[in-house]
Design a protein that fits this description.
The protein is of the alpha+beta class. Helices cover 20% and strands 35% of the residues. The chain has helices at 12-19, 85-99, 114-119; strands spanning 2-6, 39-45, 48-57, 69-76, 104-110, 123-124, 129-131, 135-143. Strands 1, 2, 3, 4, 5, 6, 7 and 8 form an eight-stranded mixed β-sheet that branches.
Length: 144
Amino acid sequence: MEVKQIEAKDTYQLRSEVLRQGLPIESCHFDGDFDDNTFHLGAFQDDKLTSVASFYLKRNKSIEDEYQYQLRGMATKLASQGKGLSSALLRTAFPIVQRNHVKMLWCNARVSAVDFYKKVGFEIISDEFHVENVGPHYLMCKSI
């Protein structure tokens, strides 16, 4: 397995397959995908992209830190879930976020992913809320 920086367009197919099933691929194009401070990571197995995550310099008003990164669009092919790919993406991302002088990472975590995020050090900081066309989520954050 290898983690590499990828382009925004490289994330769309996996985002669609895993996170936005049945919705148009355009629903996987996120605001900020091409911003200068945004970066995208991909985990490859046998030279095939099997997991992606995107990181946006974006402030959440519920969190005090002035500078924050948002983790968004983390998706892993179903057959490869539970094999440490998402954790590897995060281990690669943390130093990149820190090099940008940011110490807070947050995400809107699907209820089904909360246990994973807790295992890698995120904490729930909101009540459950609903994202239209996607489902129930929690706001979670991690100091890095």
